[in-house]
Amino acid sequence: MVPLDEVINDIQRVIYSPSAPSSFFTNNGIAPRVFKNMLKLCSESIFLYNDNVYKQHDGVAMGSPLAPLLAEWFVAMVEEQVVQQSTSCKPIFYKRYVDDIFAIFHSITDRDNFFTILNNAHQNLTFTMDVNKSKLPFLDVSVYIKNGKYNTQVYRKPTNTGVLMNFNCEAHIKWKHSLIRCLLMRAYRNSSSFYLFQMEVKNIKSILLKNAYPDQFIEGNISKFTSDLKIDENQFKQNKCTNTKENQLVVTEFDDVYLNIPYIGKPSEKLHRKIYHRMRKYYLCVKAAYNTVKVGSYFSLKSKCSNLFGSNVVYKFTCSRDENISYLGETKGHIFKRISEHSDRKSDSPVFDHLFNCKDCQNNSNISARFSILRHSNKYNVRSLESLLIAKLSPTLNIQLGKYKGAGAKLVLYG
User: Fold this and answer.
1) Phi, psi at 404, each rounded to 5°
2) If 0-12 CB within 10 Å is exposed, 13-18 middle and 19+ buried, where does residue 99 land?
3) Cβ–Cβ under 8 Å, residues 398 and 406
4) What number of CA atoms fall less than 13 Å from residue 82's CA on the CB side?
5) Can you spell out the DSSP letters for 79-107?
6) pLDDT in tens, 288-344
7) Top-confidence residue, 238 or 258
8) H/E stretch holding 4
9) Between vectors from CA 163 to CA 160 and to CA 167, what angle results, nearest 5°?
């Protein structure tokens, strides 16, 4: 678990150190205390479980945008201490990805001493050691020694199911081509010899066939991949070094326009073609960014969020005694905050005036139950939607508010 306060304090120390280069925060006069509070606010997690709201006091939430950064910072912070303490047993080769470490030592004694220092560095970090004289996995690479030389090949966990995107699923054909190319590229980069690359290609083909990919489709992609990268048995390593350098991603400004289209098969492709050809007249290249929905998304196991946390909504208040007495309003914030504002004596609210004069509403212990959400919207349209619904439903408490009936936007209908 990442000790949140400790990591945030260390980030603040590094950024605001006198020897540190200038940053966005120091250039814009953001005080260390303000920076620390901002980072803590972005890192804290509030979640819903069994209809109860909880606040996580330590650690970072899974799925949080800052979680990978804070986890990496924490391990790097501990790693720096370990390097300083292990001068007598430093590894001759050391690579780390987050909390996975691959290291080579001069002796078993050095290895064990370094492992002890690593595990004693912080109470929140506990490492295990995998020792194998013949083969060791590191991420998706399997490393082994043969004839005095290190060899590498693709590694799959024993729990790997081999389930990939099925060929018959409702997904764009480009995604299926890209899937095969991705698997082949990993095999190419992780294989230290042409023979190991060929063996992995056979494994890939076997897995794809089980996922309903046609043999001809697989062979076509393999032939194109080997041809594009000029993969040859005699010059495998030489070409590999050249291709790895050439295929580095170069990020430039995007001149193309991307359109987000839900993918439902041929109709989505037809829609994109029509838009593409029409926009070409205006010298715009519109590319499709297709998106799909997984079946699992329809069967969420998460606790359903209460309607009181709804935002950008048009809501309705109804009297406990007479349902014909009602009020319509909108809020861009959480609706429970708006209910609290309506219940405040200091507020200039027709709802509060009604609550003050209606004994039935005063005796209602759960006044929030009298508020319901009529429509969900967004921050740009919620006021317009409120005006339309007020005009349609004519709630009694709004009529008392004058010409515009308390609407946040003026409604003008043109004939």
Assistant:
1) -95, 5
2) middle
3) yes
4) 21
5) HHHHHHH-TTS--SEEEEETTEEEEE-SS
6) 888 887 777 777 777 777 788 888 999 999 998 888 999 999 999 888 888 888 888
7) 258
8) helix 4-15
9) 160
Determine contact, residues 358/397, Cβ cutoff 8 Å. Answer: no
Q: Which two tokens stand for residue 287?
A: 């590319």
- Using only C-alpha atoms, the chain has a radius of gyration, in whole angstroms, of 31
Of 284, 287, 288, 330, nearest in space to 310 by CA: 330
Burial (CB < 10 A; 0-12, 13-18, 19+), residue 357, is exposed
pLDDT higher than threshold 60 for residue 249: no
Measured on CA atoms in the order 388, 391, 396, 400, is the torsion positive or negative? positive
* Tokens, residue 121: 């560095």
Q: Report the C-alpha gap between 35 and 414 in whole angstroms.
A: 51
Bridge partner residues of 331 (DSSP): 313
pTM for this entry: 0.67
Residue 253 has φ and ψ, to the nearest 5°, of -70, 140
What is the 8-class DSSP label of residue 163? -
Q: Which of 193-207, 234-248, 271-285 has the lowest mean pLDDT?
A: 234-248
Span 92-107, average pLDDT? 88
Structure tokens at 132: 């194998």
How does DSSP assign 120-139, residue by residue? TS-TT--------SSEEEET
Measured distance between the N- and C-terminal CA atoms of the chain, rounded to whole angstroms: 63
Residue 190 near residue 149, CB atoms below 8 Å? no
Dist CA 404 CA 387 (whole Å): 8
Structural contact between residues 3 and 58, judged by C-beta atoms closer than 8 angstroms: yes
Q: Which residues pair with 376 in a beta bridge?
A: 313
The stretch 270-277 carries a mean pLDDT of 91
Where is mean pLDDT largest: 208-217, 225-234, 270-279? Answer: 208-217
| Cα–Cα distance, 198 to 215 (Å, whole number) | 17
Tell me if residue 111 falls in helix, strand or coil: helix
Give 178's pLDDT tier (boundaries 50, 70, 90). very high
Give the 3-state DSSP-derived string for 171-232, with helices as H, strands as E and coil as C.
CCHHHHHHHHHHHHHHHHHHCCCHHHHHHHHHHHHHHHHHCCCCHHHHHHHHHHHHHHCCCC
DSSP 312: S
Cα 142 from chain centroid (whole Å): 28
